[in-house]
Amino acid sequence: MSDTMQQLQETVSYIRGLVSGEAATGIILGSGLGNLSNVIVTEKEISYNDIPHFPVSTVEGHKGRLIFGELGGKKVWVMAGRFHFYEGYTAQQVAFPVRVMRLLGVQTLLLSNAAGGVNPAFGIGDLMIINDHISLFTVNPLLGKNEDKLGTRFPDMSEPYSKELIKLAREIAVKHNISLQQGVYTGVTGPTFETRAEYKLIHILGGDAVGMSTVQETIAAVHCGMRVFAISVITDLGIREEENTITHEEVLQAAKEAEPKLTLLFTELVKSL
Questions:
Q1: What's the pTM?
Q2: What is the pLDDT of residues 180-222, one digit of tens each?
Q3: Among 16, 68, 81, 117, whose CB has the most other CB atoms within 10 angstroms?
Q4: How far is Cα 257 from Cα 54, in angstroms, rounded to an integer?
């Protein structure tokens, strides 16, 4: 058994010693979106600090807890806080919790993030369903020896985000009068926000939003056979004529204001699974 599989087994065994329930849906909450965890009927909450081989989130707005509970009448695993490459973790460490979720029985993964708007039609506070991504600016978490027990050496990425789940989410949004954008998410390493020239380049390449997460998680999830749905809260605008200074505090505030809509959307989506 490889070191990675050994670590995964030890992590899963520890969690299984605390939680005996099953959940087919996993959720990873991004910057400023951790309060969705407050609407979950929590059965067990585990600090990342206590989980063997788990990284520890160091970013403001990320609570650092693995939660097992109920949302929309369905059992869920929820990560309140994620890990980023820019924190100094490897791409494999960023992907580690996704693989843990899969071994815990998760089949569908819902992701959220705060992202910069590149599409000039977007506004601050918009919700953008991710229908594809550009991963060329990040490190692929599948580099190195393939873990055959998790997935194939060369996973197909022609549909990284489930069209079925996107259709379902759009139907829910219409029903609840939630306005949604849709587009391509461009993953970058961070932690710097993009320069004006970088925003323009990403726009030319076909990106509608840009952020420092999600892509590596999605690749790992697709590799091990999970369906993925992801959505970005547009918390700042990269292409604009006026002053372009962006702060993390502004990002958190914009995410907080959009959170009620995201909470409703995720709750109804989980109900429908």
A1: 0.93
A2: 999 999 999 999 988 889 999 999 999 999 999 999 999 999 9
A3: 117
A4: 30
- For 110, the token pair is 């819902």
Q: Which residue has the tokens 């580099």?
A: 143
Q: Tell me the C-alpha distance between 178 and 234, whole Å.
A: 15
Task: Tell the residue number behind the tokens 């890990």, with chain if given.
Answer: 83
The structure tokens 């390449």 sit at 205
What pLDDT digit, counting tens, does each position of 103-117 carry?
999 999 999 998 999
CATH 3.40.920.10 fits 3-272, yes or no: no
Pinpoint the alpha helices (H) of the chain: 3-18, 91-103, 163-175, 196-205, 215-223, 248-272
Amino acid at 95: A
Cα gap 146→224, rounded to integer Å: 11
Task: State which amino acid sits at residue 205.
Answer: L
Whole-angstrom Cα distance, residue 57 to residue 193?
A: 19
> Tokens for 96?
């580690």
Orientation of helix 91-103 relative to helix 215-223, angle to 10°: 40
- Segments of the chain assigned E as strands: 25-29, 41-47, 65-71, 74-80, 108-117, 127-134, 180-187, 209-211, 227-237
